[in-house]
Amino acid sequence: MENRILVTRSSMPAFEEYMDEIKDIWDSHWLTNFGKKHKELTEKLTEYLGVENLQLTVNGHMALELALSAMGLKGEVITTPFTFASTTHAIVRNGLKPVFCDIREDDCTIDAAKIEDLITDETSAILPVHVYGNICDVEAIEDIAKRHGLKVIYDAAHTFGETYKGKGIGAFGDASIFSFHATKVYNTIEGGAVCYHDPDFGKRLYGLIDFGIVDEETVDAVGANAKFNEFCAAMGLCNLRHVDGEIEKRQSVVERYRQRLQDIRGLSMSPVRENVKPNFAYFPVFFDPDTFGRTRDDVFEALTAEGIIARKYFYPLTSDFECYKGVFPHGDTPVADRKASQVLTLPLYAGLNLDTVDRICDIIIE
Ligand SMILES: *Cc1c(COP(=O)(O)O)cnc(C)c1O
Q1: Distance 159 CA to ligand 1 centre (A)
Q2: Do 183 and 132 fall into the same domain?
Q3: Domain housing 199
Q4: Separation of CA 7 and ligand 1 centre (Å)
Q5: How far is the C-alpha of 240 from the C-alpha of 13, rounded, in Å?
Q6: What is the pLDDT of residue 2?
Q7: Assigned domain for 264 exists
Q8: Distance between CA atoms of 151 and 159, rounded to whole angstroms?
Q9: How close is the Cα of 93 to the center of ligand 1, in Å?
Q10: Which is it for strands 276-277 and 123-127: parallel, antiparallel or unpaired?
Q11: Which of left, alpha, beta for 268 (phi over 0: left; psi -120 to 50: alpha)?
Q12: Are residues 146 and 288 in the same domain?
């Protein structure tokens, strides 16, 4: 355990800084239910992320599940199978049908050119994912959605702090959700947020986060409990003070990987896209066995033997999950199928030292 290098390591503030931040929770005895820290973090994140409105939730998954619910969708949702379980589960748990669209070869985001063929009378929304922090083709998606009267909800779990053409990434679509899970670029231990424009949507969402309770005698929606607590808010306030520095440290790790792994036959990396301020959330590499000479699984095993724990993110595709087999059509997704078989996400976190990065690269090159 001690000597193993894991794919990620959670960012944490100094112990004393957190202790200092939680002192007033002891004074107030206010532990959850929209307290002072909740309010302060909501304001700070709204500003940091450059969004119009933001509501905190207990985690990123509930942000997504309740955002879809508050949208009042019916029928089918066009989405990507190249993602974390949460994206597809959120659709299905709302009683909606996921329709799987293929992804782009270069950055693994949904292929907007293939969306329109999948639209039917039943389609109500598009749920793309800015996967690995790679920004989707937001202009093309917005254009399709407008022409067909569809809602767009972005799973922006990987894009904390990113901007596209100077605009906060959470400001795109009808809603965008973030995850502040311990393993993400910015964490509140567990936590998430929904960003949106429409205040009426915001009211419905607020109800769903807190049992549909309007006042002591009125409950007007079948809500869940997805409230965000004061201890997580305190962690969020501390981590927000340091997140820019953490992103800079991640950048130096990514630059080293790119420098060492460029020009290797059969190994490809995500492109660096113009107009994007990146957050260096993940470092996926793709191995084409025909030209690289070894499979992704060979590399995975070679790294594991040296105590380096990389992850096959995202494999399997969500459309290949046991729970969805024979339930929803797999979809015609040849690019996603291939990418899932070739990808390995390498260790990346703020404190990862460059000697370790070199060691990982040596193993791969060998
Ligand atoms: C992490 C993640 C989520 C879910 O977030 P949690 O905070 O863990 O519930 C959703 N979508 C994607 C793409 C993620 O990576």
Answers
A1: 11
A2: yes
A3: 15-237
A4: 16
A5: 9
A6: 56
A7: yes
A8: 20
A9: 15
A10: unpaired
A11: beta
A12: no
Ligand 1, residue 64: give the atom nearest the CA: 10
Does 243 score more than 60 pLDDT? Answer: yes
- Which atom, in ligand 1's list, is nearest to the CA of 179? 7
Do 198 and 67 lie in one domain? The reply is yes
CATH number at residue 164: 3.40.640.10
pLDDT per residue as tens digits for the range 300-326: 999 999 999 999 999 999 999 999 999
Task: Name the domain count of the chain.
Answer: 2
Judgement on whether residues 140 and 171 belong to the same structural domain of the protein? yes
Q: Would you say residue 1 has pLDDT above 80?
A: no
Kind and range of the H or E run holding 193: strand 192-196
pLDDT digits (tens, 9 = 90+) for 337-364: 999 999 999 999 999 999 999 999 999 9
Identify whether residues 214 and 269 lie together within a single domain.
Answer: no
Mean pLDDT of the chain: 97
Question: Which ranges of the chain does DSSP label H, i.e. alpha helix?
Answer: 15-28, 36-49, 60-70, 85-92, 138-148, 199-209, 230-261, 289-292, 296-305, 334-342, 354-365
Ligand 1 centroid to 183 CA: how many Å? 9
Residue where one domain finishes, among candidates 237, 271, 298: 237
Give residue ranges with CB within 6 A of ligand 1: 59-61, 83-84, 86-87, 129, 155, 157-158, 179, 181, 192
143 with 272, same domain: the answer is no
Cα 292 to ligand 1 centre (Å): 31
* Ligand 1 pocket test, candidate residues 84, 127, 188, most atoms within 8 A of CB: 84
pLDDT digits (tens, 9 = 90+) for 13-72: 999 999 999 999 999 999 999 999 999 999 999 999 999 999 999 999 999 999 999 999
Find the 185 Cα to ligand 1 centroid distance in Å.
12
Ligand 1 atom with the shortest distance to the CA of 83: 13
Q: Do residues 270 and 216 share a domain? A: no
Q: Are 198 and 176 in contact (CB under 8 A)?
A: no
| Domain-located, residue 137 | yes
Question: Does residue 203 sit in the same domain as residue 261?
Answer: no
Which pTM value belongs to this model? 0.97
* Domain end position, chosen among 217, 237, 257: 237
Which of the 8 DSSP states describes residue 136?
Answer: P
